[in-house]
Amino acid sequence: MKKAISIFTVAAMTVTLLAGCGSSASGSTASTAPAATSETSTVTTTSTDAASIADSAAASTNVDLSKAKVGVCIYQFSDNFMTLFRNELEKYLVSKGFSKDNIEIVDGANDQATQTNQIQNFITEGVNVLIINPVNSSSASTITDMVVKANIPLVYINREPDADEEARWKDNNWNVTYVGCDAKQSGTFQGEIIADLGMDKLDMNKNGKVDYVMIEGDPENVDAQYRTEYSVKALEDAGLAVNKLDDEVGNWDQATAQQLVANALSQYGNDVEVVFCNNDAMALGALQSIQSAGRTVGKDIYLVGVDALSEALEDVQAGTMTGTVFNDHFAQSHSAAEAAINYITGAGNDHYIGCDYVKVTADNAQEILDKVK
Q1: N or C: which end of the chain has fewer CB within 10 A?
Q2: Strand 210-216 to strand 242-249: parallel, antiparallel, or no bridges (unpaired)?
Q3: 305 neighbors 321 (Cβ within 8 angstroms)
Q4: 350 three-class SS
């Protein structure tokens, strides 16, 4: 298809976004399991090489980024992680030469109909690029069709469309890409944090199994699905027998998770040895119930989350959370911005731009905390 901004022409070139991330032209990592990395992995941000490439492309086409209009759709402003993401995204776009007045970020309020209307409004306004964190990943095909028809390049973030949808982008050579981390890896890291403790510490009721409670995010969200599946799979891959006591949907919400974990502790008592939460907000809620029940993380129960929110990192340092997984909003937001720049300048992108999570325990919590504060 034609580039979205047809007035820009560039020589044929291949751009690989580094951004502390791996990129793939395959469109999806759904068929491959994530490779584990050390929990003391060095935290990375956007590569200066990627920034230089984008700057060179902009210079070669004399594009004035300050005049480019960017529409950003976030599924829900109240989400802790997406708040960090959108704030860093706007800051980075401005640092690359965009005018803050031309960057509009809207709240989908966790309602797909609301977000769809917002996307239609951006199309009517004639934005130069759209960055979308979909309320429902299953709506991606409808969103893509609308945006492609309007000849506007599209960068999906954080919530990955399925493999069939991503294959359409490649098959049709559309200006559509996904920027984010592989949720399988985050679940694997959660499970590895627990498995590394060893059965002697985990099997407190001596039944030969790891008895756990799972608190899921939005059940339609692929991140929630993979974190739920792969956290348990990592235990099994380590040779540990598991026993699911309870599996409830917390919808990423701290208060909901607090009540669900309180219920589970009331029903199963000291048999609950591990609580897995698909994100840190829910883990913080779980911690409140654990403490209210007179249990002590690290002594008679273990707790893990995902995102590496500041409060969660402080709990990991204090030993009141066993661990978390750093969902690197710096690398992801910077990569999303670079992808938008590449589309505007005509350089183009691969259809999948991936980033790595980082396993966080007490050993490296301070390093991550220094970065996110």
Answers
A1: C
A2: parallel
A3: yes
A4: coil
Closest CA to 189 of 139, 237, 234, 223: 234
Give the strands of the sheet with 70-74, arranged side by side: 21-24, 352-355, 176-181, 154-157, 129-132, 70-74, 103-107
Instruction: Report helix, strand or coil for 215.
Output: strand
Report how far residue 128's alpha carbon sits from residue 145's, in angstroms, rounded to the nearest whole number: 16
pLDDT digits (tens, 9 = 90+) for 5-51: 333 333 333 333 333 343 333 333 333 333 333 333 333 333 333 44
In this structure, are residues 169 and 351 in contact, taking their beta carbons and an 8 Å threshold? yes
Nearest one of 288, 274, 100 to 196, comparing CA atoms: 274
Q: Which domains does the chain have, with CATH numbers?
A: 21-181+327-362 (3.40.50.2300), 184-326 (3.40.50.2300)
Range with lowest mean pLDDT among 30-34, 128-132, 271-275, 346-350 = 30-34
What pLDDT digit, counting tens, does each position of 58-80 carry? 444 578 999 999 999 999 999 98
Residues with Cβ within 8 Å of residue 81, at least 6 apart in sequence: 158, 279, 280, 307, 309, 327, 329
Q: What is the mean pLDDT of the chain?
A: 87
Region at 361 (left for phi over 0; alpha for psi -120 to 50; beta for the rest): beta
DSSP helix/strand/coil, 70: strand
Note the pLDDT of residue 61. Answer: 54
d(CA 277, CA 306): 7
- Are the C-beta atoms of residues 176 and 27 closer than 8 Å to each other? no
The token pair that represents 67 in the structure block: 């005049």
Helix (H) or strand (E) holding 171: helix 163-172
